[in-house]
Amino acid sequence: RKSWTTVQGFPETVRLPKSGRVLQVDHDKLLRGLKKSFKTNGTLIRDEEHGTIIQLQGDIRKEVAEFLVDATAIVTKEQVMIHGS
Questions:
Q1: What is the enclosing helix (H) or strand (E) of 31?
Q2: Per-residue confidence at 37, pLDDT binned at 50, 70, 90?
Q3: Strand ranges inside the chain, DSSP E
Q4: Rounded distance, CA 83 to CA 3, Å?
């Protein structure tokens, strides 16, 4: 059975911790980085109600959470919620 990893709730802007500058989040670049890092396919969905959603093939929930917290620092560990078994 094939499974998908869905990530949603990304902020549109991020404040840098040291300089305090506010930068736009490049969701396309983030998707490319995820696809290259985990050698999988994925898509970007823009929804009015849920915002930007990234779907990746495979069950890589924990790995994606670590990538978003450690490599990108877009979200903190407290903001990440992993659903499912």
A1: helix 27-38
A2: very high
A3: 4-8, 13-15, 22-24, 42-47, 51-57
A4: 13
The Cα 52–Cα 31 span in angstroms is 11
Can you tell me which residue has the tokens 């659903």? 83
Give just the sign of the alpha carbon dihedral 8, 72, 38, 80.
negative
Q: CA-to-CA distance for 25 and 50, rounded, in angstroms? A: 16
Query: For 39, left (φ over 0), alpha (ψ -120 to 50), or beta?
Result: left
Residue 61 is inside which H or E element, if any? helix 61-66
Mean pLDDT in residue range 5-20:
85
Q: What confidence score (pLDDT) does residue 4 get?
A: 93
Say if strands 51-57 and 22-24 run parallel, antiparallel, or are unpaired.
unpaired
Residue 70 has pLDDT above 90, yes or no: no
Q: What share of the chain in percent tops pLDDT 70? A: 99
